[in-house]
Design a protein that fits this description.
This protein is of the alpha+beta class. It has helices at residues 81-87, 150-159, 180-190, 200-212, 227-234, 242-256, 300-315, 391-405, and strands at 3-7, 17-23, 30-31, 36-41, 46-50, 55-60, 67-69, 73-78, 217-225, 263-265, 268-270, 277-279, 281-283, 286-288, 291-292, 329-332, 352-356, 360-366, 371-385. The strands form five sheets. Strands 9, 12, 15, 16, 17, 18 and 19 form a seven-stranded mixed beta sheet that branches. The protein has a four-stranded antiparallel beta sheet with strand order 1-8-6-3, with no helix packed on it. Helix 6 packs across helix 8.
Length: 411
């Protein structure tokens, strides 16, 4: 009977690889068509790899905890000719070598490939470091030049390094350029440091932030009194979170000033067709940003139901592939962590991100009573791509958000 390969599928438009989480079947098990036999984790969600047709699981060549590119060989199913005809599968696997086998070598389980005799794996008791961004630890007081020679680039590609990863290295070349010799010396220097493998989520966040930081970003902020919003919220059932008040006001402000929501593409500013706003959700070892579609058209109660559904999916890593695509801006409430101020970074495909700090009780002067009165005040911070939006435009957005939050019944 022919063997049908189990290949890593294309799990999303921008997903190039996935990590094996577990196997839901074992060699010798009978399976049916479209049965989920492998659970994998992408940088956005946990998904399943299914069978093309029914048969007997012959073997798995993939390993748990290892990432495989789209199209990689994961295993085989032994099937009958009748089952192939019934399901329309027309790619019998006679020569396994024709498929990509990405089983890694032992040394490829490290952050980067190093062939050093003095390298040793640290004992588990020695590792007291949480997973961090893929790259080299950065000692203080060092700097490096930005130019990277072709030879240096080739060596970095071998080690799986980005330009940001070598910023820790002091260059000895012309003009402070970091040479291959500098890199090798630094690799030797840190070879025995404790390390831990960055998760797919952490690597995705790192890549996104690297791309975001290629733009000139600026942040402005202003305080806002929350007493009116808190009073309005107490009268609602169910009670919308403060994040949703901010999101709704932000969506309406952008609708009033759509020129600020575009992004630069060559010599054109591309403007949004709708006002889909993302909400930053903290998950294990990273952040996901599910989108609330057409947030400017939804009431607070509708936003509450949609937000609850998306947060539950995000924390379970079950977000659909299209749930994070096509947003124009993001809202993040870092005040839930007790932070009062921040400089959030927008996603690479977005121009704006609005952050909210923790509410703090403060005395504020009241003209009506001619005295200081206690209020709950929070800081709103808007980070923007300065190529598209200037400080004045960002200020207009924040003023609009502030006005709407002072009149929550308008939301």
């Amino acid at each position: 009977m022919p063997d049908i390969p189990i290949l890593m599928p294309q799990l999303g438009e921008s997903i190039a690889e996935a990590t094996i989480v577990s196997f839901n079947a074992q060699p010798g098990d009978a399976v049916v068509a479209d049965q989920e036999v492998i659970e994998v984790e992408t940088n956005k969600a946990t998904m399943g790899v299914t069978t093309l047709c029914g048969g007997i699981v012959k073997e798995f060549v993939a390993r748990e905890g290892v990432s495989y590119a789209v199209g990689s060989l994961l295993g085989y199913i032994e099937v009958t000719e009748e089952e192939m005809a019934r399901t329309g599968v027309t790619v019998p696997m006679e020569k396994r070598e024709s498929f990509q086998d990405d089983r890694p070598k032992e040394e490829e389980n490290l952050h980067f490939k190093i062939d050093r005799e003095d390298y040793r794996e640290p004992k588990s008791s020695e590792i007291a470091i949480e997973p961090n961004v893929k790259g080299l630890p950065v000692p203080t007081g060092t700097k490096g030049a930005s130019y990277i020679s072709p030879r240096m680039r080739a060596r970095m590609d071998e080690l799986g390094l980005q330009a940001a990863d070598i910023s820790a290295i002091v260059g000895s070349g012309s003009g402070g350029r970091v040479t291959v010799e500098d890199l090798e010396a630094f690799v030797d220097y840190i070879a025995t440091w404790p390390s831990s493998k960055a998760s797919p989520m952490r690597r995705a966040v790192a890549d996104s932030m690297r791309r975001s930081w290629t733009r000139p970003l600026a942040t402005v902020g202003m305080p806002i009194v929350l007493d009116t919003v808190l009073k309005h919220r107490a009268e609602q059932s169910p009670k919308p979170g403060l994040t949703l008040y901010i999101l709704r006001a932000f969506a309406l402000a952008l609708k009033n000033h759509p020129e600020t929501a575009g992004y630069l593409l060559g010599e054109s500013v591309v403007h949004p067709r709708g006002f889909d706003i993302g909400v930053a959700v903290q998950v294990d070892d990273g952040v996901l940003v599910p989108l609330i579609r057409e947030a400017d058209t939804k009431s607070l109660s509708e936003l509450t139901a949609e937000y609850t559904r998306l947060v539950d999916l995000a924390r379970a890593k079950k977000l659909p592939a299209d749930a994070t695509k096509g947003g124009i801006a993001t809202v993040t409430n870092f005040g839930t962590f007790g932070l009062t101020w921040g400089t959030p970074i927008p996603l690479p495909n977005e121009t704006l991100i609005l952050g909210m700090g923790a509410g703090v009780k403060k005395p504020v002067w009241s003209d009506s009573v001619e005295a200081f009165v206690p209020v709950i005040e929070s800081e709103l911070n808007l980070t923007f791509d300065h190529r598209v939006v200037d400080g004045g435009g960002a200020g207009i957005i924040l003023q609009d958000v502030k006005r709407l939050l002072q009149n929550p019944s308008d939301l």
